[in-house]
Structure formats: structure tokens, C-alpha cells
Amino acid sequence: MKRVLISGTGGFILGNFIRKAIYEENKKQNKEYSFVSVDRLSDNANGFYTNKNHTFYMADIRDQHIIDRIFQFERPDIVIHGAAETHVDYSLSDPNSFITSNVLGTQVIINACVKNKVEKLIYVSSDEIYGALTSESDQSWTEDAPLNPRNPYSASKACGELLVKAANQSHGLTYNITRSSNNYGPRQTPEKLIPKAIKCIMNNEKIPIYGQGLQIRDWTHVFDNCSALFTILNKGEPNEVYNISANQEYTNIEVINEVCNAMGGGHHLIDFIKDPRGNGHDFRYSVDASKIKKLGWAPHYKFKEAIASVVEWYTLNKYLLK
Hints:
It contains ten helices and twelve strands. It is of the alpha/beta class. The mean pLDDT is about 95.
């Protein structure tokens, strides 16, 4: 079995990934992978996953000593690095924590990968590194589009990408980079748009929408992102970048209306407020996922159908909406 070390399993995307990956491995007679993961379990962590086929370490990726010890003990063959600070608004008020986690933390992981001669590092990035599209008619970004980050969060993720590519040139580190569109699904913390709206409706509170809610995002179910990561784990070509998207674009107000519909009400709670960044919120994100589809991956979840199951999950797990 290949040993896979994953950083960030206390978070939304990798927390779902470790659960899905272990479930899929447990169904097989001849298992291909075993898993170990690392997360510092910060205040917004959604909880870690315990399983006999999963070893978990509570640790900070910025600590080179402890990360080195974990690598020395576990001897991973493949590393998936997804631990990161991710909230754009928080990056505006506290950019230093994003730089230390997303840049220094990434270099610490790279150092350990190089030192322990891992077979491949998969770096989980974001479509926000491309910047913003200014029109609904603009072509979706391909992997060759230039990096144009517009806030400390996306800049820190772009820096992480460059460090990974530099390690390939300097040390021969084999890598893949993923750039996913906006994700939704279970276990997402309530500062994000969809769980925040669900929480507001549950509590009969106003749902704040910046401007007229016309910003456009490309929505991918987190389970589709997980299957894409598994595809790249198995089939990713060496040193390639892959966009991940279900190509389902909606304005923020359309998303909120779909949440209200799924909850049987709440439209009256929508509250259009002044954008605290002026015109700082990017108008549109859209990525072309043709490249990863050539590996055999395809999304399975349709937003307007899946949102009801997401709402149901949160109503059964209200503790995450504290």
C-alpha cells in the first residue's frame, strides 16, 4: 500500500476527502492506500476523522521540527497539501496569518517532501489565483491563464504554487496542482456563503448580501472535488496543473434564493448591504476543467438538485453552525 499524508483534514475540503478516501479504500479487497493526516484544529475546524485506517496528528504545518518528525515516523509516499487559511475577508484584516500558514507552511511541507523523497506532492490551490473576470462573456480560465491574485489570500496561494514549482526545478520534486472553483457541501463553516445563509434562516436573522448579489461564482460540490483529487492521485500526469469545476455559474442572489427554496422560506430575510470593500469583491470566477476530464473525471452533482441535501445535512448537524 502507498502511504498518503494529507494536511488540512480538519477543514472543509480535505475533511470530506479523508472520509471519502477511506470509505472507498475500505470497500476494496486489495487496498491501494493507507492514510495519515495533519491539522492544527483551529477554532473553525470542523472536527477530525478517526478510523483504524487513518492516523491523525494534531500539529501546525509551520513547525518544521514536528513536521519532520511526522514524516520520519510515517514515511509517506505521496503528500496532499491542503492546510491553509482560506477566508478572503479575514486575509484583509490579518494578512500575516495567511502568509505564515499558506506560504511558510507550504515551504515547510515542501522541505519535508524533498528530504524524505516523496513520490509526489499534490498542492490544493484555488481558482482565485487567476484574479477576476469582468464580463459574463469572458472565456473561462484555462490552466495556462496568468496568475493575477487580488487579495492576500489568493496571493498567498499563488506563492505556494510558485514554491512547489520551484522545488520541482531545484530538487526534482514531482507535483500536481489543483485549482478548484467554489465548493459547497457538508462540513463547511458558517462564515461561507451557503452555510451562513442556512444559519441565518434557522435563526430568523437577516442574510447579508453585498450590493445586489450579482457577483458570479462557479459552484462545485465538495464530493466532486474529492473525486477529482482521487483522480489526480491515481492518474495525474507529473508536474501538471488541473482546474476542477462543475461549470455551474450562479450569482450570489441566485444561490441564496435556492437555499431559501430548499428551506421552504427565508426570502424575506435577504438584506442587501453596502459592500465593505466598495467594488473590491471580484465580479466573476470561471474555470475550464477540460484537462482533468481527459483523465476520466466528471462531476456528478447538479447544484439546484444537490442544495436540498446540503440543507438537510446542516439541519441534522446544527452544531457546525454555532
